[in-house]
Amino acid sequence: MANLTISTRPAAEAAGDALVVGVVAGDDGPGLAPGHGLPRKSVTHLKAAVADLDLTGKAGEVATVTAVPGVATRVVVLAGVGELTARPDAESLEDVRRGIGAAIRSLSKKKKAVVAVPGSSTALVAATAEGAALGAYTVSKAGARSTEGVAAIALVGPADAAARNAVKRARAVAAAVAYTRDLVNLPPNLLYPETFVDSLATRVKGGKVKLRSYDLKQLRAGGFGGTVGVGQGSAHEPRIAVLTYAPPRPQATLALVGKGITFDSGGLSLKPATSMTTMKSDMAGAAAVAAAIFAVSELGLPVAVTGYLGLAENMPSSSAQRPSDVVTMRGGTTVEILNTDAEGRMVLGDCIALASESRPDAIIDVATLTGAQVVALANTAAVMGNDDALRTRVLDAASAAGEAMWPMPLPKELRPGLDSINADLAHKGAVEGGMLSAGIFLGEFVGEGIPWTHIDMAGPSYNDKAASGYTPKGGTGFAVRTLISVIESYT
After folding, report:
1. What whole-number distance in Å separates Cα of residue 269 and Cα of residue 341?
2. What total of structural domains would you count in the chain?
């Protein structure tokens, strides 16, 4: 991860390989964003470049200018940051993240970038810092972090206590997102339930987060039939990992639950070959939960958070579970399996039931759960649950974090579609409203009276198209920033 700092040194004098300057869009045409502090001759040169290059200031627009007079760096990168006002709203701040992120991503061959904060507010410092740090992420073809990419980013802007705290938070958030992206990008022959737990064990060493892991024997003894059933067709045994961050005198106690299917073939209900190509990312929810807890620990937030990660590999074999099998979940609910490709809800059901046993103030689960979410909302995650106030809290946090989410209902009329003559529940409803019936299924495992929200992020968790803004190709790290913002809202 790039080293991120902030100083009040003039941007024109700062040493580095490139200087990033924002370009804003406006009714009178594009112009340089405020806060750059460049000398007049530099401004004149860059304004001419903006006109000559037909720039608009649209967020994500990037252009490189060389030999700018009065600037120490060899190149200046003009980064579109959208329309900025004196008090930018959440949408404008996300434009800044995207614009600065795109500029840093374009500098992958450079080692040090200087970024002029496009304004003086702490919110703009935070957005600039996050966009820069997120845009600096790179991954190699082997699945590990590449040695390419910007190694150091120096922000130039206000450096008071609030700004320094904003940069500190941005570093923690970006590190959490990078960890999530790293896990999602690992090939499935390297990341499976056991090695996922190994990664967590490495991360918790010397820190404030504690790890407990359930192996196959313990899963069977503990009644985690959903997790055991999903994983029984694989040579890699399933696991449940529990991460606990328990600060003194917490202001709230939260449970986060993450789906961690390290590869989803569909099981005996085998997916088409083309549908498997991104299924190494089916553990993105578990990765996001783990990363968010590590970030909360690093930031020292006064909120107790426990993460429950349901880890399994869904494979076809002679030992795989079958359609029509009936399994007993944690807590005793029996479930009839109808389609083994609807496996995520089974590990989540076990983990939600386990989380409910400690009676947290709220449960939030995160999952790449349904193809129906992608069809309905594309790269906007769906948010549903049993408590309107908690759902609104999650949506507000997502808006502040710059992650697209949309509220969805849990219609009571869909519940009869989960009835079974052989078990307490059928684990899948009709094709119509599949995203919603999956949420209704999960709600069956939430302890009575516990507020719960479900985030279905099958679409935005993985980018199989070209990189844009601060989002690389591959794992996106989606939901990490929202989870951190939700937890902060309890402080």
Report:
1. 6
2. 2
Side chain identity at residue 417, one-letter code: G
- Token output for 483: 């989870």
Flag whether 391 is in a domain.
yes
Asked if residue 202 lies in contact with residue 29, where contact means CB atoms within 8 angstroms, the answer is no
In tens, the pLDDT along 329-344 reads 999 999 999 999 999 9
- Of the three residues 133, 167, 201, the one that is the final residue of a domain is 167
pLDDT tens-digit readout, 161-216: 999 999 999 999 999 999 999 999 999 999 999 999 999 999 999 999 999 999 99
Active site (annotated) includes residue 271: yes
Domain co-membership, 334 together with 229: yes
Mean pLDDT, rounded, for 420-428: 97
Same domain? For 230 and 90 the reply is no
**225 and 105 both lie in a single domain:** no
183 belongs to a structural domain: no
Considering the candidates 345, 391, 393, 481, report the single residue annotated as catalytic: 345
CATH of the domain at 480: 3.40.630.10
pLDDT band at 28 (very low <50, low <70, confident <90, very high): confident
The domain of 382 spans 191-488
Distance CA 230, CA 78 (A): 50
Average pLDDT rounded to a whole number, residues 482-486: 98
Assess contact for 60 and 82: CB atoms under 8 A: no
pLDDT value at residue 345: 98
Confidence band, pLDDT 50/70/90 cuts, at residue 87: confident
Q: Catalytic site residue 345?
A: yes
CATH number for 125: 3.40.220.10
234 belongs to a structural domain: yes
Q: What average pLDDT is seen over the chain? A: 96
CA–CA gap between residue 346 and residue 332 (Å, rounded)? 13
Residue 139: which of 478, 367, 467, 484 has the closest Cα?
467
Distance separating alpha carbons of residues 237 and 470, to the nearest angstrom: 35
